[in-house]
Amino acid sequence: MENQVRVVSTGVIVALALFVADVLLVETGRVEAFDLAVLEWFRSTADINDAWGPPWFEEAAGEITALGSYSVILLFSLIAAGVLAIYRHTLAIVFIGVAISGGAIVSSVLKLLFERARPDVVEHMDTTFTYSFPSGHALISAMTYLTLAAVAIRFINNTLARRYLLGCAVLLTALVGTSRVYLGVHWPSDVFAGWCLGGAWAGASWLIAHYLSLRVSKGGMGADLGESDV
């Protein structure tokens, strides 16, 4: 268990370091060429406003990106909370609510802090209302799906099932973030920043859940947050 704690702790530190590095690259303009190259890579060489792939693929990208929207995130969170309520894991419900809502606030504050404009070199294939950095969809999806997975695997004893669940969370996060670049509404560095910060938030949430479960278990309430032998 201590090895897992060290791995997650290291992952949080690395993710935060990468986020800071990304911020420095964005602020100094050193990532502009890379951002533009990746954004254009998803577009037709004949027409930069035409994303590659048939119409059904473009529609699928729009549906996938919705998995990182606040409405879908809220729906999944409520479903997870409902399952936890059935098993009377009240602390786990509160923990998920605090972790996800706190992350959403951080995302909004950072957007207002950096005020980075959306890409204007390609046509947007999705409606946007906020600033670009960091990607809210990438951050919120990483934070939510990884946090939900981190909490869920505390109640699963099968190692293969744990890995599968965590892998699904990572895949969803990757698809949502990539779809934002494909749709032309985010620079790649926006998405990378969202992934880093969301992953760090989820990792920190896992660590907090672990230590809380150790503390409350001394009072006979450990099962409320899940067993500590994740």
Mean pLDDT: 87
Spans of 5+ residues with little confidence (pLDDT < 50)? none
Helices, by number, come to 8
Structural class: mainly alpha
Largest sheet: none
What is the helix content?
over 70%
Oligomeric state, counting identical vs distinct chains: single chain
Shape type: globular
How far the N terminus sits from the C terminus, by CA atoms, comes to: 7 Å
Describe the protein's topology:
Elements: H1 2-28, H2 32-41, H3 55-65, H4 70-86, H5 90-114, H6 136-152, H7 159-182, H8 188-217
Written account of the structure:
The protein is mainly α and 230 residues long. It has helices at 2-28, 32-41, 55-65, 70-86, 90-114, 136-152, 159-182, 188-217.
List keywords for this structure.
mainly alpha, about 230 residues, single chain
